[in-house]
Amino acid sequence: MKILIAGAGEVGSHLAKLLSNESQEVTLLDKDVDSLMVIEEKYNLMTAEGNPTSFASLKTAKAGAADLFIAVTTSETDNIVACSMAHKLGARRTVARVDTYEYILPENDEYFQSLGIDQRIYPEYLAAQEIISAMRYPWARNRFEIHDGEIVIVGVKIRENAPVANMKLRDFGSAERSYNISAIKRHHETIIPRGDDTIQPDDILYFSTTADKVDNLINLCGKAVNHIHDVIIMGGNKIAVQVAKEADPDEFSIKIIEKDQQRCEKLTELCPDCQIVKGNGRDIEFLLEEGIDDTDAFIALSNNSEANILACLTVKDYGVKKTIAEVENIQFVTEADNLNVGHVINKKLIASSRIYQLLLDADVASAKCMSLADAEIAEIVVHEKARITRSQVKDLDISHDVTIAGLIRDGKGISVTGNTLVRAGDSVVVFYLNGAMRKVEKLFS
Amino acid sequence: MSISRTKRNSLLNLPMLLRIVGFLLLVESAFMLIPLITTIVYEEHDFWAFLITFAVTLVAGLLLTMVVRPSRSDMGKREGILLTAFTWLSFTIFGMIPYLLSSTPQSFNNAFFETISGFTTTGATVLPTVENLSHGILIWRSLTQWIGGMGIILFTIALLPMLNYSGGIQMFNAEVTGITHERLRPRISQTAKGLWLVYITLTALMCVVLCVGPMGLFDSICHSFSCMATGGFSTRDAGIEAWGGYYNKTVITVFLFLSGTNFTLIYRSTVMRDPRVLFKNETFRTYIGIVVVAFILSFISIGLLNPHYSIAKLTFNSLFHTVSTASGTGHLIEGYDQWGAFAMSVTFVLMFIGACAGSTTGAVKVDRIICLAKNCRNEIKRAVKPNHVLPVRLNGKVLPTSTTNKVVSFTFLFIIVTIAGGLTLTAMGVPLIDSAFSAFSCITNVGFGAGITGYGAGGYEIIPDAGKWVLALLMLIGRLEIFTILALFSPTFWKR
């Protein structure tokens, strides 16, 4: 597929990297030669220097022949104009990154369609969605729902006190097991475990299971059943407003802390169901005054990534069960993950993985769902005569970096054991380490 | 949500390197089928030499690809550089086997020199005569040049999806000539395919046109291979003069000129149907300018010293010589020793400049010369008006200072390495002028024989054996544009 990405910022570069590794024909367009040169030297793609809102440079970058045009510059208006121009030149599908909630409302679809913009991505909205999901399932690090939630993959951090800690994989629950441990993230590395691997404290385990059995995992991992109700948000930015808008006021009671008087007044208008408090969220005495020790979740959304990480670490000492930090420096994301911050939100990564999903929805052959650390999860429909259908899973001789996480048969999620026989027409969820894509393809051909 | 963390493993990924070299050797063994078939057609005894070479290369390739199982596939810049150098060396080592086993066996030194001179498209030869060689050896000599001309790695990138990741890109950057590495299409394999398409088409076209003339099919094929690669191996001792007349010279001049142009430009102007890019391109226009000026200068100086030449002979010979030198082919024509010192000086300058980047030629390249000249002009202006903003512009685009710096260092290193090579040769007893010229001729990949400065009979057979290895190294340094090979000698490269 021919993809033209306008804007070589963090989102653009990240996307370009992902897509180029998927053997797509990627061209990256930006005004700044220096950032382009860095990328071109390392990745298999073409770069074009030029203004994304100029017909001349869109033409040199062959916007007309693009199957997908993605505008992710820092300016919302540039993105809209660029998409509209690219559409005019003949781009088949256009995606623009926007910064205004209004623009993603369904009632405005028609207007944007008429401008030639097929899809709008509003990262703040997606971030809010992720925050709410994290508050609903506070015991999980990550949660992916596949095939409308028939198969659920959750990442859980294992503590010293968890029943499964220091156990060998083969030692627990064999026969009626309703879950699989598909992967273990240990330090900076992801491994696909075998029976003789031991679970160590501080591992993040990726369980795959069916929707109705997810709650069984809570006990297994030694997690308490926490229902989050009282939430403090530090920093009243757009994400905070989106969280307030999307959250059900009966489910969550939200308090937003904001330094700026004017912004506070505006927030009372934007989020009528929330309490707005003026003050400095980094001041622990102030937080105590606001009842941080009775709070279930603390969400740090200030524009300073370091402050967010530190604030989360501090409030953990006061008994806050779930902390979520917005970390905008991509380099810090893994570091923050290792620091027990709880949950890390990065708008840019969310935006790029969302665009990535949009793209792969169009490409039925390999409906890749999400990438995580150095492994990927894919949902693949099994064809007639595929190698995987030839014998039971235990006899398939599957390579060490691939595992089958679950399968969906007739719209129902099923856990996979060694005795499962995959049939043509099933949808199989595969978990594999980066670079094992070919082996997966072989299995399904 | 998390992102993949780039682990910088400081150890070189050697298994992956070996595996890729294995794949490349398989490609080389496929190329060896051409001389093998030739020996069958001509019923030559060298059939066995090629059969053994083919088998050895195939087995080595298969062993490396099947047995070596790399645990990780990542390749960084260092692996890219090392692999490029390693590939060229291993191609030479397997490619020299036919010379050793043929019915006209060569010494180890000579076989290595001849092969690397082929792959680097230098065209310097240590064989006193080529007319006693079998057809198989002759076509293999030309074929080595043809493979090396566009690039062994570039060919493989077009074929192997495995090389379409970071490592392959590093190799692409290390092997393709030029200041920047222009891409035609988003995927590197598409770019590689595009370039090879142009290359193969031009070679086939040249072969047909030559065949129509006085040259036979076999000689046409060999000359097309060696000319498109701007290598300069011939099938006769007299070179192109063996057929006389002006037909061959004209055809070869035209095709040599084309192989000196940037292949991406040829692709754009023909396949992408945008002929304007060719003449809008500053490098291409300068290339034409240089060739025209050099032609006029040689025309006048040769004409004055050789009044007995007819106008036609004078025109064709000086044009042929100019293009053959500028493109780094190094075909010599009879009577060059009567042309005088000035014509030779022009030749030296042309050898230094070379042709456009992104072509199959060697030397400094017109692109860099333009950049250097503009930079010097700017410095002179700046001496008078220190506050003026004077960047170097190429094709209307400002070149970043880092690029200009790289060009300046490149040229400096080019000169230093040439001098160092020349000095080493003098230590082996080669006269000063001749050793300097030989080193220069090898690093620019032109391959004029040492005989041009009056040393020996014409070829490189007179150079002592140790000197041949020095020259072989120079050829490789020149072909891979200095930095790739010199980086290997830098302690930084091997530091963790």
Q: Roughly how many Å is the radius of gyration of chain B?
A: 22 Å
Low-confidence stretches of chain A: 362-369
Rg measurement of chain A, Å: 23 Å
Structure annotation, total helices of chain B: 23
Strand order of the largest sheet of chain A: 3-2-1-4-5-6
According to CATH, what is the topology of the largest domain in chain A? Rossmann fold
Number of helices of chain A: 14
Estimate the helix proportion of chain B, in percent. 55-70%
What kind of sheet is the major sheet of chain B?
A: 2 strands, antiparallel
The biggest beta sheet of chain A reads: 6 strands, parallel
Shape of chain A: globular
Helix/strand class of chain A: alpha/beta
> Alpha-carbon distance between the termini of chain B?
32 Å
User: What would CATH call the homologous superfamily of the largest domain in chain A?
Assistant: NAD(P)-binding Rossmann-like Domain
| Strand order of the biggest β-sheet of chain B | 1-2
Which spans of chain B of ≥5 residues are poorly predicted at pLDDT below 50?
A: 1-9
Shape of chain B: globular
User: What is the ordering of alpha helices and beta strands of chain B?
Assistant: HHHHHHHHHHHHHHHHHHEEHHHHH
CATH class of the largest domain in chain A: Alpha Beta
